[in-house]
TrEMBL record:
Gene3D superfamilies in the cross-refs: alpha/beta hydrolase (3.40.50.1820)
Keyword flag Transcription: no
PANTHER family per record: SERINE CARBOXYPEPTIDASE-LIKE 7 ISOFORM X1 (PTHR11802:SF224), SERINE PROTEASE FAMILY S10 SERINE CARBOXYPEPTIDASE (PTHR11802)
Family: Belongs to the peptidase S10 family.
Organism: Fraxinus pennsylvanica
BP terms from Gene Ontology: proteolysis; secondary metabolic process
Name of the molecule in the record: Serine carboxypeptidase-like 18
């Protein structure tokens, strides 16, 4: 009996079996085998969601409208139909996985599967657990931890942080607009971190094609960061390498007619492949999925939740905070985990009856971890699947 992973992610650069040649200098980018592909330890179905993402498409304009709840139901429907069309995989152990915004969708899909099984819907899906990387769970928790994280990483001074902590009463995300002292104290913080690459705080910040107003949303409301949903193009700053060069390579490759023909993309369905399609109609109608985790924690599944510890888009501190809100029992205290004799990060394990949640930080990784530390993340996944301590 094998294992399967159904993966939801806003953009995956390092999980699949192929990778782009980093030395691309024109023409059609070449690809090579990825030595750290997650397909080495599992069969993976990658899903472009919602319709209009990647090479996916809808036959009607209405089909391009979606939401959090609709995404969860649609993906469960897809999975049931796929398994019925491929019955040889029905008995495989299944894990639902996703990163970034997929952190919201993963527990919702997992709960849809669980409830469908309980209702007797066919096929019965052998759900074992779920995996979330650098995931959004609750913006009031995750986004609010950006400033405490920036302080912990020495990006803002003790004085700035303590002043804002008092005046904002610890609420930095969507602060009270009438709290003028809080808004005033947030300004030097914004100034201190505005030129930091929030996807990986140690890497250079590169220009985006269409930057948002208000400096990427880090104004008084600190709403969101463009690292999640904005296109990055090649840019060199004083000769520094920009990660966005790799993203641009994917545009050239995916929009090549011969590539699309080889991939059997239906002609006329995709005008231009884009890394993130911002033209779609999508309603974020579930603000927090903490309650989904609480329900799943009573059903005996396994959960792997990991964070790149240099990600300021969705800092690991927010992930720790919502995990603690589940009131689980600590099964294994915080400790380092190693790859090839070197510390690869830190881990802590929680449990509730037959439910186990393993939290992992990936040292030096950004948003999202496998892109920055593919070797370490493959080792993490392999050990977790094998029930071997990290």
């Amino acid at each position: 009996m094998g294992r399967g992973v159904i993966e939801y992610c806003y953009y995956t650069m390092s999980l699949g079996p192929l990778a782009f040649d980093a030395d691309f200098d024109g023409g059609l980018p070449s690809i090579h085998l990825n030595p750290y592909s997650w397909t080495k330890v599992a069969n993976i179905i990658f899903i472009d969601w919602p319709a209009g993402t990647g090479f996916s498409y809808a036959n009607t304009s209405k089909g391009y409208s979606s939401s959090d709840t609709k995404s969860a139901k649609d993906n469960y429907t897809f999975l049931r139909k796929w398994l019925l069309n491929h019955p040889m995989f029905i008995k495989n152990r299944l894990y639902v996985a996703g990163d970034s915004y997929g952190g919201k969708i993963v527990p919702m899909v997992a709960l849809e599967i669980s409830r469908g099984n309980e209702a007797g819907l066919q096929p019965q899906i052998f759900l074992q657990g779920y995996i979330i990387g650098n995931g959004l769970t609750d913006p009031n928790i995750d986004y609010n931890e950006r400033i405490p994280y920036a302080h912990r990483m020495a990006l803002i001074s003790d004085e700035y942080f303590e002043s804002a902590k008092i005046s904002c009463d610890g609420k930095y995300y969507n602060p009270d607009p009438k709290n003028l002292q809080c808004l005033y104290d947030l300004r030097p913080i914004q100034e201190s971190i505005k030129n930091i690459n929030r996807g990986q705080i140690l890497e250079p910040k590169c220009k985006s094609l269409a930057p948002k107003p208000d400096d990427l949303g880090w104004d008084q409301t600190l709403v969101e960061d463009d690292s999640i949903d904005h296109l990055l193009l090649p840019s060199k700053i004083d000769g520094l390498w920009c990660r966005s060069q790799t993203y641009a390579t994917s545009y050239i490759w995916a929009n090549d007619p011969t590539v699309q023909e080889a991939l059997h993309i239906k002609k006329g369905t995709i005008t231009d492949w884009t890394r993130c399609n911002n033209s779609l109609s999508y309603e974020q109608n579930v603000e927090s999925v903490v309650q989904y985790h609480k329900i799943l924690s009573k059903k005996g599944y396994a959960a792997l939740v990991y964070s790149g510890d240099h990600d300021m888009v969705l800092p690991y501190m927010g992930t720790v905070k919502w995990i603690n809100s589940l009131n689980l029992t600590i099964d294994d205290e915080w400790r380092p985990w190693n790859v090839n004799g070197q510390v690869a990060g830190y881990t802590k394990k929680y449990k509730r009856n037959d439910f186990y949640l393993t939290f992992v930080t990936v040292k030096g990784a950004g948003h999202t971890a496998p892109e920055y530390k593919p070797k370490q993340c493959l080792a993490m996944l392999d050990r977790w699947f094998s029930l071997y301590p990290l």
